[in-house]
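FAQ: What does a multi-protein file look like?

Like this. Sequence, then tokens, then the next protein.
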Amino acid sequence: MVFNIGIDIVEVDRLKNIKRFNQFLKRVFTSSELEYIKERRYRLETIAGYFAAKEAVAKALSTGIVFCFKDIEIQKGKTGCPKVKLYNRAEAICAELGIRNIVVSISHQKSVAVAVAIAEK
């Protein structure tokens, strides 16, 4: 059963203007996500897509960001599709709400990245 849906869109060019870009990456992304971003040669579309996915997951939980961005990890499944792994406060919120699964989809082009997340009970 669907609990809620979250969606987010990020303008890729906004990332170009972030001061202390490396600190931003370390604050927002887990080590596994950073490895993937590095494999993708720090493509801004990839970074924007992963960031949009984290925001979409937070919206699907109906809480907004009341936890660390690193509490939401976007992973690549066996088929290459993104999947969500939660930690700490985000994981606890899901348990409190009875959410058993979160499905996420990410898409991007040169100027924007968009992600949608569906929280399921």
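And here is the next protein:
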Amino acid sequence: MTVPTGRRERKKAATRQKIADAALRLFLEHGYDTVGIRDVAAEADVAVTTLFSHFASKEALVFEQDENFEQRLTQAVTGRAPHEPLIPALHREIQALVRHCTADSAAPIWHMIDTSPALRRYEESMRLRHAEALATAIAADPDLTRTTTACRAIARFAIDAFSLAREAADPQAAVDETFHMIEAAWEATGPSPDAPETASPE
């Protein structure tokens, strides 16, 4: 995520983080369903309107790194070195994201998400949105000559690799295994090799 540079931007970022921290603390202590928006606003010492200026919904409070996650995925495409292949760049970024989300400190948060139907639905819609943003970044790269369908499919596979790894006994191995298949699928969608030239008739 872009680091705020101006005083106003830094203040907004600090307020947003304070709200997210307060929400997570209350959710983990008392349960997601029993805590209301007003409870979070009071805990963070902000007005409800201020809370909603930073977060569109109660579910969004749990996924406060949503925007950062999406930016990291798209930047894995747009910010990779010249001529660096796409799939290894995505593989590396997904591995980093999985390491972060499978740390011991994240376990209570994911348990809360997994046991809340509302949060699971939100997570699913978020994954679809991330996949579309990633597909758009892939399709916009002039060096990656693939159809729109291929770009969307590969993007969804990459997002699913994250989800599958999070639930696996060995997350890093799950990412590697899934990306082995993604690499094969990406190669299969590439342009066909040029046919060998035939000799001209004399």
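Q: Is there any per-entry metadata?
A: Some entries carry free-text notes. For the entry above: Residues 7-30 form the longest helix (24 residues).
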